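Technical annex, item 7. During the second reporting period the consortium partners agreed on a shared format for inverse folding records so that results from different sites could be compared directly. Each record opens with the tokenized structure and is followed by the designed sequence. A conforming record, contributed by the partner at site C, is shown below for reference.
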């Protein structure tokens, strides 16, 4: 019986802390978007993005402007691998 004098206040304090944590998370926006993360996993594009090297950038600049920047007349830009 004497242990209840200790356990009841401790359990009430634990409940109060749990309720305060719940309201704090709710106020901070933790529960605002509950379906967005689930859809982002399903719609995620897993293909890696390939980085462009400097010769590809020069070839793109050549195609966009029509100028012969960085490429001589007899030289063609290398193919990408």
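Designed sequence (site C submission):
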């Amino acid at each position: 019986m004497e242990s209840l004098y200790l356990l009841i206040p401790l359990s009430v304090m634990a409940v109060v802390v749990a309720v305060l944590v719940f309201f704090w998370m709710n106020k901070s926006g933790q529960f605002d978007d509950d379906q967005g993360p689930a859809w982002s996993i399903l719609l995620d594009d897993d293909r890696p993005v390939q980085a462009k090297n400097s010769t590809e950038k020069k070839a793109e600049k050549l195609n966009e402007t029509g100028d012969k920047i960085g490429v001589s007349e007899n030289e063609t830009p290398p193919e990408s691998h």
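The CA atoms of residues 46 and 71 lie 35 Å apart. Helices lie at 4-27, 36-42, 54-65. All partners now use this format for quarterly exchanges.
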